[in-house]
């Protein structure tokens, strides 16, 4: 086996470079914006064709990920519907996975790679989770549920003192950066990778005497944050059930975005209950459809980047999930890290709630 070919990392991490003008050291660790140097990025398969026309593969069955499910492509299967199939150290083999609903495999084309030596224990895993039934949007809430049920099961099985889910994300659609149509999510279990954005979430959490995310997820009415900002929760809520609250962010990271708040106080995704994962699938489906159908003065946004905000260095944290539509950045965003919105977020929330009223089938 070519050991540079699969997303399994050993003692050293891929080369990481921090911008010296945007980074700082705190308690012996570097925090800031960073990039990973990786030539493997160019070797990934691309189903979206580079053309001026709508970039779609002609046949949904012509899919790299479906080839894994039907046994046409080699794979290292970490989990299938909560069942452990292969170990990370195993060689890739052919599987028939049609009887399962969701599977998690080691990423054959990880965005970053590190040379490893045979026979030594992995301390990092890059994984991809997919539904076995083809879906290319977030509309199918069951498909989303199958993805994360399998992924979180794989993460739980692989978690130890040094190896944890450092990065969890999902790209939907070509403009979000996805190269494959088949709906999928990715996770990286490595030693901790800190960035300035993640550090900002951790610092903000620590600035409150009690969990402010719990307030955002469970309270109603007006609350006040540690910055003395008054926030009207009733005007922010788009949808909720017993497990999840979907809101319009008070200060959105991107112009068109929504935020999912689990009502349970947990710090990592693998601690979500099965019922909460089902609610997560429904919330993502609702977010996708209201973002694409709201009465707003921009083209409907149906491609998304989904970021799971979590931390490994404290059990006292509350995860946050951001659904970010891919839109062009303005000049100020490129000068400094900030978001600019030409519509009051409260008004955006009202637009999204009105859009939800017209999409009855997703909340039946």
Which descriptors would you attach to this protein?
364 residues, alpha+beta, 2 domains, two-stranded antiparallel sheet, globular, HIT family, subunit A
Describe this structure in words.
By secondary structure, the protein is α+β, with helices and mostly antiparallel strands. Strands 1, 4, 5, 6, 7, 8, 11, 12, 13, 14 and 15 form an 11-stranded antiparallel beta sheet that branches. The protein has a two-stranded antiparallel ribbon with strand order 2-3. The chain has helices spanning 64-69, 141-158, 196-206, 212-218, 274-293, 331-335, 345-357; strands at residues 8-9, 16-26, 29-36, 77-80, 102-106, 124-131, 164-172, 185-190, 222-224, 230-232, 237-240, 244-247, 257-262, 304-309, 320-325. The protein has 2 domains: 8-190, HIT family, subunit A (2-Layer Sandwich); 208-363, HIT family, subunit A. The chain is globular and about 55 Å long. Residues 50-56 and 115-121 have low confidence and may be disordered. Strand 11 and strand 12 form a beta hairpin.
């Amino acid at each position: 086996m070519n050991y540079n070919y699969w997303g399994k990392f050993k003692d050293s991490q891929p080369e990481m470079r921090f911008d010296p003008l945007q980074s700082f050291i705190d308690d012996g660790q570097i925090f800031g914006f960073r990039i990973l140097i990786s030539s493997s990025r160019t070797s990934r398969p691309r189903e979206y064709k580079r053309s001026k026309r709508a970039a779609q593969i002609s046949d949904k069955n012509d899919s790299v990920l479906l080839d894994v499910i039907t046994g046409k492509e080699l794979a290292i299967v970490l989990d299938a519907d909560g069942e452990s199939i292969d170990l990370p150290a195993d060689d890739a083999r052919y599987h028939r996975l049609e009887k399962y609903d969701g599977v998690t495999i080691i990423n054959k084309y990880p965005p970053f790679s590190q040379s490893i030596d045979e026979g030594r224990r992995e301390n990092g895993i890059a994984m991809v989770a997919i539904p076995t039934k083809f879906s290319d949007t977030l509309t199918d809430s069951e498909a989303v549920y199958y993805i994360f049920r399998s992924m979180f099961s794989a993460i739980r099985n692989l978690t130890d003192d040094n190896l944890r889910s450092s990065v969890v994300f999902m790209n939907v659609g070509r403009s979000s950066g996805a190269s494959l149509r088949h709906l999928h999510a990715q996770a990286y279990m490595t030693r901790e990778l800190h960035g300035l954005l993640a550090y900002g979430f951790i610092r903000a959490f620590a600035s409150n005497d009690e969990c402010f995310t719990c307030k955002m997820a469970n309270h109603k009415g007006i609350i006040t944050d540690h910055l003395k900002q008054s926030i009207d929760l009733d005007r922010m809520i788009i949808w909720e059930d017993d497990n999840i609250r979907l809101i319009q962010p008070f200060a959105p990271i991107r112009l068109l975005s929504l935020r999912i708040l689990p009502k349970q106080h947990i710090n990592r995704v693998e601690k979500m209950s099965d019922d909460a994962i089902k609610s997560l699938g429904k919330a993502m489906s609702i977010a996708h459809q209201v973002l694409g159908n709201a009465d707003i003065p921009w083209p409907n946004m149906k491609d998304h980047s989904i970021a799971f905000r979590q931390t490994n260095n404290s059990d006292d944290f509350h995860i946050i999930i951001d659904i970010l539509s891919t839109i062009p950045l303005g000049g100020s965003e490129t000068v400094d890290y900030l978001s600019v919105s030409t519509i009051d977020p409260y008004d955006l929330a009202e637009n999204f709630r009105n859009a939800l009223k017209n999409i009855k089938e997703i909340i039946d």
